Amino acid sequence: MAGWSRDTLWRQGHLLGKDAIEALGLRNATAPGETLVIVASHDCDLAQAPEWEPVVEVVVGRLVTDMDGNCTHAKSARKLHVEFAGAAVFYAEFEATAKLCIEKHALNDFVPRPEAHLSPENQTIFQIWLASRYRRSAFPDEFERRLIKELKLHEKIAKAVKPHGDLIAGVFFDVDDGAEITRDGPGDTYTLDITILHSAVPNFETAEKAADTAAKAIEKAFKDKLFDPTKTWRYIELRSCDPVSESVLTYQHFKQLKRWRLEHISLAAEPQQPVLAE
Q1: What is the average per-residue pLDDT within 49-59?
Q2: For residue 159, what is the domain's CATH number?
Q3: Following CA atoms 178, 182, 188, 189 in sequence, which dihedral angle do they give, to the nearest 10 degrees?
Q4: Which residue among 114, 147, 225, 253 is the one 20 to 30 A from 32 at the CA level?
């Protein structure tokens, strides 16, 4: 086959065929027989000559029978569940830790899998997921300590969102109106506004109902834990938890919010790992 050129057939989001997977010795650690491999490198990098960009980054994943609602729409930075269209619809799972590099010269002997592709929307979701590993929202250590370690309310949020899968695009927080404030003691409460972002298509009403159900479950969990026992807010005051359509959320409002990753790990982890705010 001719050398690698700008006219390569390979693009970000393309799947490797079985011939390439076998020849390159790629295997999913959990389910070798269900291995899927997707190209993660950007199209601009793929177009570069091997002398300048010698490798193609891929993610080794696997075929799954259904999707976990907390792993769709890039809600988790560690694991993505996404749908492929084509001759037959199927679902794939990819993990951020399963990235590796293939020499362009080795991949040049093969062509992309022709009968399966990501829709434009799922292509964007795949790109957001790739970026999310390096662009995660950072919240105050004390806020996360209260929400996760002391109150376990992060589990309630995940439980409320999970059943609704693709209908909910994400969960976003506004803590103390974006101000950096150090809180001390249960009476010194953080204020929290939560936005449950839901899809607009193909069924707006179903998605809106799902987001509303999740929002009410989250509101109840916070109120039961932090308000009802004393009739005054302690630790975290949930001021609002609103379902909002992705077709309605303005860019100005979006910039004020930080995505809450459903597998979120505190900055206070040991050792502490710095991350960038979204």
Answers
A1: 95
A2: 3.30.429
A3: 30
A4: 114
